Every structure is written in structure tokens, then in C-alpha cells.
Amino acid sequence: MFKTVLFPIDQSREAREAAEVVVNIVQKYGSKLVLLSVVEEPAADSPNGDAMSSPEKVAQLLETAKSLFAGQGISAEALERQGKPAFTICDVADDIGANLIVMGCRGLGLTDEGSTDSVTTRVINLSPCPVLVVP
Description:
This is Universal stress protein. By secondary structure, the protein is an alpha/beta fold.
């Protein structure tokens, strides 16, 4: 059913909590797991950019995640991309033929003000496959 699962990760608590759900799905369905970290292009007026824009930080995050899943007996492929998170997540899902995207949710899209800025909401609306949102 879910041959390929895409799990976009960042350093948030919500992503760590969603990892448990990913483990259950991948083990139950024998899915291929693809981890994705999206580095947002720094704004022109931002002198230093975001802390996650460091290639070393992203590589460390992906290696830590791969180790976490390896500890559960799950082999994962890790991808790093640069761009707007929601669009990049959906593009990668399409490129790899993902059958499911699993995302943690910060709850920012639950308010009228946050709904247009929520990466999760944008992914749900643009995704080429089902999206499981882990609160």
C-alpha cells in the first residue's frame, strides 16, 4: 500500500514525535523510507541566513535521523534540497513516486493568520499523494 514513504524532517519536536509513526508505517508495510531536509533559501535582507542553512547542520540532522531509524531496523535514504519547503516537499514526493508523506505539525495552520503560512497546509493542498499529519 505505501511502497515509498517520504518523511520531511527538521529540528522540531513535532518531527521527532512523527518519527514514531513513520517507524510503525514503514515496518507494517515494508516501505522504502526517504528522509528529506529542505534548506530554505535565505532572504536577501538576511545577513547570516537560518541556522539550518549550514550544510554541516543539515548533514548532521540527516545522519542522526538515519541512525535513529537504523536502530529500529529501517534503512533510510536521505535527501537534502534547497527551496521553498512546501513546494520542494511536493516536488520530491512526485520525483520519487512517494505513496505517502508523513509530517509533524506545529499547529500554526490552525489559526486564520497561520493557515496561509503553514508548510503542512500547503503540502496537503499541493501533494501528489496522501499526507499523514501527526499532531
